[in-house]
């Protein structure tokens, strides 16, 4: 597991460097983008979704977007100023066998400032812990995650 986590970390850092270069037009290096991300803030998750005889109607995980900066997923965000967005996805159960997934989440530290790579930014300044807290509040209040629209300078969220 340690070897897989380390390999996924290398993949994440390579992808991050490519995303940063595309956004900024020059090589900024994986360590510089996004600020505050390092091995101490990342995690590796193994998921098991049991079989279900009514698989087509059974969610293993409801539709959602991920909260981290980058998810590397092996299976069968505001820094980019909305150039790259987390795609809503879901997990549907399988009728014949358990469904397994392995995910590596590259996350900033909780006190990391979330700022865009360019101006003008549609978002006000916020930290990752503010973002995570607001997502949890959204889910408690509405049953779903609202996410970045909460941090727009001209909020669309009431």
Automatic annotation (TrEMBL):
Pfam families found in the cross-reference section: 2OG-FeII_Oxy
Ranges of residues in domain Isopenicillin N synthase-like Fe(2+) 2OG dioxygenase: 77-108
InterPro entries (alphabetical): IPNS-like_FE2OG_OXY, Iron_ascorbate_oxido_reductase
PANTHER family: 2-OXOGLUTARATE (2OG) AND FE(II)-DEPENDENT OXYGENASE SUPERFAMILY PROTEIN-RELATED
The name this protein goes by in its record: Isopenicillin N synthase-like Fe(2+) 2OG dioxygenase domain-containing protein
């Amino acid at each position: 597991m340690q070897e897989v986590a380390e390999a996924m970390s290398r993949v994440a850092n390579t992808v991050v460097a490519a995303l940063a270069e595309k956004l900024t037009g020059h090589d900024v290096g994986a360590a510089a983008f996004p600020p505050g991300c390092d091995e101490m803030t990342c995690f590796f998750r193994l998921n098991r979704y049991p079989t279900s005889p009514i698989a087509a109607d059974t969610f293993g995980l409801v539709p959602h977007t991920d909260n981290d900066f980058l998810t590397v997923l092996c299976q069968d965000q505001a820094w980019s100023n909305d150039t790259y967005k987390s795609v809503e996805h879901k997990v549907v159960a399988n009728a014949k066998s358990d469904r397994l997934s392995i995910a590596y989440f590259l996350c900033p530290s909780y006190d990391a400032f979330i700022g865009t790579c360019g101006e003008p930014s549609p978002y006000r300044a916020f930290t990752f812990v503010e973002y995570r807290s607001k997502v949890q509040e959204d889910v408690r209040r509405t049953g779903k995650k609202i996410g970045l629209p909460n941090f727009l300078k001209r909020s669309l969220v009431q």
